[in-house]
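Quick illustration, no need to memorize.
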Amino acid sequence: MTPPAHPGRMLFVNLPVKDLARSKAFFAELGFTFNPHFTDETAACMLVGEQAFVMLLSREKFAEFAQLPMADPTTHTLALYCFSVSSRDEVDTVGAAALKAGGSEADGAEDLGFMYSRSFYDLDGHGWQVMWMDPKAAEQGPEASEASPQSTGSPA
């Protein structure tokens, strides 16, 4: 992979939620943990990767940062959030955990051979995708993967 433009760069995605405690419990069921140093009654810092975090913020806290009105994620899509896991089986495990924890399925599994994914909506209606990518494809592009593409999901 190419080196990052800024090696020490961190990514924080701020996400408004209706019920912070329920959202924390939901994402904990998916295997995420939280940094207690940046978690309180209005915010929870969810660890996504070594330098990537999702800040679950109460709607009131989010409004302190936002200059524009908050959109309703059940009627408007402003972003889709995707995270990777280490295997195809883990995609299915995390997808099933999301549904069991109260999320809803966005569409069926998508199998492109080099990449496999499932999508779901969290408790607030934000769209998430859990995916696995063949490490060879991640480094060299999809053509480098030995897996053949096929789709089991709904057409885009």
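The CA atoms of residues 137 and 144 lie 5 Å apart.
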